[in-house]
Amino acid sequence: MIGFRLDGRSNVVPYLQLVEQVRRALRTGLLEPGDRLPTVREVAESVSINPNTVLKAYRQLEHEGLVEGRPGQGTFVVGSLAGPSLASHAVLRRELRAWLRKARAAGLEPEDIDALFGTTLHAFETEGAA
Amino acid sequence: MIWLAWRRRRGAVIATAAAVLVAVALLFLTGRSMCSTFHDGGLAACIEGLGGARWVPVSGGCQDEAQAFAARFFPMRLLGLALFTFVPMVVGMFWGAPAIARELEDDTVSLVWTQGVSRRRWAWTQLAFATVVTAAAMGVFTWIATWWYGPLNAATGDRFQWLIYDQQGLVPVGYAVFATLLAAFLGATTGRTVRAMAITAVGFIAVRFGVAVFWRPRFMSGLERAYPVVTTRVPNRLLGDWLYGGGGPGVGVVMRANGERAAGGQRVCPPTDPACFADIGRDAFNLELFHPASRFWTFQSIETALFLALALVLAAATVWWVRKRLT
Amino acid sequence: MTAALETTGLSKRYGRTWALRDCTLAVPHGRVAAVVGPNGAGKTTLMRLAVGLRRPTRGSVAVFGRAPRDHPASLARIGFVAQETPLYRDLTVADHLEMGRRLNGHAWDRPSARERLAKLSIPLDRRADELSGGQRAQVALTIALAKRPDLLVLDEPVASLDPLARRTFLSELMGEVAARELTVLLSSHLIADLEHRCDYLVILSDSSVQVLGDVDDLLATHSVLVGAADGTTPARGIVSSHATDRQRTLVVRSDADTPTPPGWVAEPISLEDLVLAYLSEPDAGVLPGPEGPS
Known about the structure:
The complex is a heterotrimer of chains A (130), B (327) and C (294).
Chain A: H1 14-27, E1 36-37, H2 40-47, H3 51-63, E2 67-70, E3 74-77, H4 86-105, H5 110-129
Antiparallel strand pairs in A: 1-3, 2-3
Chain B: H1 2-8, H2 10-40, H3 43-50, E1 55-57, H4 63-72, H5 74-84, H6 87-106, H7 109-112, H8 119-156, H9 171-190, H10 193-215, E2 223-228, E3 233-235, E4 242-245, E5 253-255, E6 261-264, H11 274-277, E7 285-291, H12 296-325
Helix pairs in contact in B: 2-8, 4-8, 6-8, 6-9, 6-10, 8-9, 8-12, 9-10, 9-12
Chain C: E1 5-14, E2 17-27, E3 32-36, H1 43-50, E4 58-63, H2 72-75, E5 78-81, H3 93-104, H4 110-119, H5 133-146, E6 151-155, H6 163-180, E7 183-187, H7 191-194, E8 200-205, E9 208-214, H8 215-221, E10 222-228, E11 237-243, E12 247-253, E13 264-268, H9 271-280
Parallel strand pairs in C: 3-7, 3-8, 5-6, 6-7
Antiparallel strand pairs in C: 1-2, 1-4, 8-9, 10-12, 10-13, 11-12
Helix pairs in contact in C: 4-5
């Protein structure tokens, strides 16, 4: 079962943080279609936040077609964000680790790597769109 | 709600019951010795011999035996007077003052007034509980005190007198209930238990004094009794009539034949002693204003009802205060 | 639908002093409303008026449409925990539960109350005056919750709790709100505790309502602007302003679409910063418009 966390310092509004955590779990395969999300009550208690925030998050996920609420049973994952297969994830992860080792060996700090990746991704996407 | 009232003051109920038991035991033991002296010493027989006669010889109406008995138990009478007088007030204050005030001081009203019970029901229950315990304790105590006073009443004829009357019969219960509700009312209005007790003491004494001295003699119209100064027969004091008027409490006046007041008190002169009545004349007479002993229980009932009525008014005022005025 | 708690021009005077002046608010159902403000601002008075422990000098207060003081039936739907969490000193915890059961009749949930106390390791046979401050607060809250109230009014409920106990208390409160569409009115000095938990805000200052509204709306319409000390001052609604010799920090209120003025950097605002900004500027305020409280 997924566990939620709230980053009080983040600029992102709480309900969107929850939404993003579900999305990330879906992408990494931590959550699969058919899994049940924790109840609104369980999340409100464990994260210690207003249940309306959790409701908003679940509603947003439902709106995006990722989850479905079944009365009397709970909220279930119905959509998927996982890539083609988890296997390709594993391959990509291995290649990424190798590249990271090279970058660190070249003297880049994590912030530099982050900036490099961010700008390259951005450029790649805009090129792709054009 | 009753359960809560009981649970909160359970310790006090037990302490009160224990105190009553101790008092009953003490009174029983001391009273028993008085009783046996009364019978064995011959005073009981002597009084029975008088047969409730209204007039008795100047000497020979058991006066000597009675005085001897009264003198022998004088310390006991004094102790009784000193202690019993305060019992109704103390019991009433102890039970009445904290009834509302304590919960205001502790702010437990924030807890109990936000449950499903109305202030009215809460207030009446608090008052009723305190009153019932007070009445029960004082009822038992008064019952044993009345029994205890039996021989002393017979030997002194003082049953109807101020202070003696106040400690037996029915009125102590009325006084105590009045004290309870007076203390509760003051507790509710001042919000302080100790302060309520202090003001209750003052108020209680003032009201008791006022009623006893100014009102009690007027419960019914008194009877007049006149008898000559020169006489061999006098009224039987041991019957227990209440002489309340004339020269001062408990005594009458001595009047000349022409209706002029000669002196206060009572004068009895044997016919053989002219010097005794030389200054007032042979035809002088004694005048007394009194309530006959047979009215004792009527008076007790009237006064008890009076104090219970006062108590009820105070109770209603307290509940009104709690509901409407208490913030 | 009637608001859970509604006041109209509610005022309370003690002797010559006004403890609360002309307070008009409406807390909708199912909200967790925070009442904040400095000491003496009227928080406790407002809460006590809401549960019928005080009589209004002027104006009115209604809980689920009825004045709580005149309707004991309304009291059955309200749970209240006062600031000092008063309990009956000589009574045990079990006695207090028994009291609740007897005074609240059918709506008393004994099993959940016992379960809650067991989870908190509070022994039922302990006398109230032998409990610690935190345990007393938990017992008081248990009693209030066992009534299954529809409105829970808590006056500084966590003031006497250590940080872990505070977190536990507030987490459980959030759980209860989730379970039963409970409306909560809660006051606290520790504004950080209210962050992410409260969705309705009442700021009381000097016995009057200074700020009133939905937390999401308030946070969306306020932001922190940071800029140079000698830069141009924005034209829009400044709530508060702090300056060092180099830098100025403003809290401003505006519509969501208003662009950041040049030379300033905008940051989203936390609830704590928003409250502090208003508390430091008593003349500023946010009150609902003529259409009435939301």
